[in-house]
Write a structure and sequence with these properties.
- The protein has 116 residues and is of the alpha+beta class.
- 18% of the residues lie in helices and 22% in strands.
- It contains 2 helices and 6 strands, in the order αβββαβββ.
- The protein has helices at 14-24, 66-75, and strands at residues 29-31, 37-39, 60-62, 84-86, 89-95, 101-107.
- The strands form 2 sheets. The chain has a 4-stranded mixed beta sheet, covered by helices on one side.
- The longest helix is centred in the N-terminal third of the chain and has 11 residues, at 14-24.
Length: 116
Amino acid sequence: MITGTHTVLYSLNPEADRNFLLKVLNLTNVDVGHGWLIFGLPPSEIAVHPAETNTPSELFLLCDDIQHFIQQMTDVKIHCDPVQNQRWGYLTYLTLPGGGKLGVYEPLHPRPVPMP
């Protein structure tokens, strides 16, 4: 039934953020026409958290080594917030070239097997 996920990032500078995904994170992509790129992602997971209200969904990228990731971002002048040591992982937020924030964490929790 479900074959994947399609995530949308909204941006004040979409071209800069697309270039970041393309040239810094080196994500695979396909041009769906007129230079509009859709980027590939590694396997994903989804969790449901309790909340007082139904708030907008969040997107976090996962990495194997948060300190190494931050160093890679620092090398290309992408700002990362200080690492937060959460019970579920080591979390930072990077600032996209378009000004938005994107969460990245090194999980400490077990990971599900990707769907076939």
